[in-house]
Amino acid sequence: MFHLSERTWQMKVDQIRSLMMSNPYKPTALLLSALDETAWLFNLRGNDIPYNPFFYSYTLLTLDEIWLFVHTNRVTEDLKKYLTASCTGPLCVQLKSYGSVRENLMTYVARPEAKVWIGTEYTNYALYEIITPQEKLMTSPYSPVLTTKAVKDETEEQILREAHVRDAVAVIQLLMWLEKAVPQGNLTELRAAEYVNKCR
C-alpha cells in the first residue's frame, strides 16, 4: 500500500465524524465495506487486486476510535507512521487483521450504546447480520463516505483535469499513428492498444 496526499485523512475522518454527529439517528460508528471507501478515507492505494488500486479492507470508524482491518503483514513501518498506528487517540488508526472484522464488530455491537451506520449497497450479509438488535443498526443506501467522496476539492479537480489532458494527448497520438499504420495493412487491435498504453 502507498498513500496519496490531497486532503489529509485526518481532515476526512473529522468531516465524516461531523456527519455522524449531526445525523438525527445518532450513530456511534460507521462500517465501511466498499474498498474504495477505505482507500479514499485514508488517501491510500494498494495492489492486492490486479489492475485495481484498492486493497482488501474494512473500516470501523467510531466517534473516538478508528479500526482498519487489513492484511497486517503487508503494512510497512512508514505506513504505520502515516496512520499514527502507534497511539490510541481519536486520530490514531488501530490496525487489525482483515480476518478479524466479524469478531471485532461483534465486540463493538455488544457495547450498550453502540449504533452502527452501514451503506446497504456494499455491506455483505455476513457483517450486516451481526448488527442486532435492530435498534443498533442504521442504514442508508450509501455510506456518508461514498457521498462525500463524490464532491471533489480543488486539488482533486486539478488532478482530474490534468489526467484528462494527458489522456486526450494519448488518444490524439494514437489517431495520428493509426493514420499511418492502417494503410500498411498489418495492424491489429492488440498493437493499437499497446501503442496507446505506451502513449499514456
UniProtKB/TrEMBL annotation:
N-terminal signal peptide: none
InterPro entries: Creatin/AminoP/Spt16_N (IPR029149), Creatinase/aminopeptidase-like (IPR036005), X-Pro_aminopeptidase_P (IPR050422)
Superkingdom of origin organism: Eukaryota
Protein name (Swiss-Prot/TrEMBL): Xaa-Pro aminopeptidase
Transmembrane spans: none
